[in-house]
Amino acid sequence: MMYCLFVAPLALLLDFLLGEPSRFHPLIGFGHLANWLEQKLNRKNAGSQLLWGILAWGLAVIPLVLITAFISNSLDLIFQILFAAIYGWLAIGWKSLLQHGQAVFDALSQNDLAQARIKTSYIVSRDTSESDETALSKASIESLLENGSDAIFAPLFWLVILGAPGVILYRLSNTLDAMWGYHNERFEYFGKFTARIDDVMNYIPARLCALLYSICGDTKQALHAWKTQASSWYSPNAGVVMATGAGALNISLGGSAIYHGHYKERPTLGTATEPSFTDIQRAMSLIDNGVYLIATVLVFMGVLYYAF
């Protein structure tokens, strides 16, 4: 599997050049499958919801992973590389993430608050209808930093570790968590297994992402925020990523926000400096630099391995 050291940079290159498929993304089809399974299997009895949720996850994920592994193992090496690179491209959201961030930045730089609220609402689940520039900047940066881990560095990690089967296992599990991993009456038990699987698969990638943010930003502030603030966040993986990213950018993230009509008080992360719209581009640069760094390291490791 050492060829995956080269596959990951190739997948990043494909994403950089092509972006997401414009007509049909396979994850859209998977989303329809997930919705169908949830409608069929999510029973009202809380005692059985957990078991049905485990079954639903297995039916949605395991067959596709096994098919991918079978196809990959039946290919010659050069086709395995291309196959894995295409899967990596479909799983990575680097270019798409930056495009969403740029859209918010452009609107705010033109003082178009109404458009900025709309663009920000595309990438966050909180209410942005009355948000000011600071709140919109903060929301966008938080989304960029967290999705830098979920949509870029975590897929790369599993692509390198397990090739095409690994990256599809991660991406499908992460997609199901986004659909089922809610603390509400409908998904509290049905989505619990899915949420725990996503937590486990993101544990190491989130910390690698935080390390990259630390190296590429204000290292001292980033490591301090990681050490003192990450554990205060309600998500163990998102907390590490966002606290470290806030410290790396030397800005303040977290604080109160409106979700589904209710104020939610969140811990403050980073420093005391409130972000402005210019910090959105700084966050995108932080992510870019992390991508360039990890791609360089992987290529270097691959060259060393095959040279010696």
Overview of the molecule:
The structure is a single chain. This protein has one domain (4-307). Helix content is 74%, strand content 4%. The protein has eleven helices and four strands, in the order ααααααααααββββα. The strands form two sheets. Strands 1-4 form a two-stranded antiparallel sheet. β2 and β3 (262-264) form a beta hairpin. The model has no long low-confidence stretch (mean pLDDT 93). Converts cobyric acid to cobinamide by the addition of aminopropanol on the F carboxylic group.
Quick take:
The chain is mostly helical and 308 residues long. It is built from eleven helices and four strands; from the N terminus they run ααααααααααββββα.
Helix-strand layout with pairing:
Layout: H1 4-18, H2 26-41, H3 46-73, H4 77-91, H5 94-109, H6 113-121, H7 133-180, H8 192-216, H9 219-229, H10 236-249, E1 252-254, E2 257-259, E3 262-264, E4 268-270, H11 278-307
Antiparallel strand pairs: 1-4, 2-3
Pathway: Cofactor biosynthesis; adenosylcobalamin biosynthesis
Protein name: Cobalamin biosynthesis protein CobD
Family: Belongs to the CobD/CbiB family.
Strand and helix order: HHHHHHHHHHEEEEH
Report the end-to-end length measured between terminal Cα atoms.
Answer: 16 Å
Radius of gyration: 20 Å
Number of helical runs?
11
| Main sheet makeup | 2 strands, antiparallel
- The level of helicity is over 70%
How many individual domains? 1
What order do the strands of the largest sheet run in, or round the barrel if closed? 1-4
Strand content is: under 5%
GO cellular component, one term: plasma membrane
Keywords: Cell membrane, Cobalamin biosynthesis, Membrane, Transmembrane, Transmembrane helix
Family: Belongs to the CobD/CbiB family.
Membrane topology: Multi-pass membrane protein
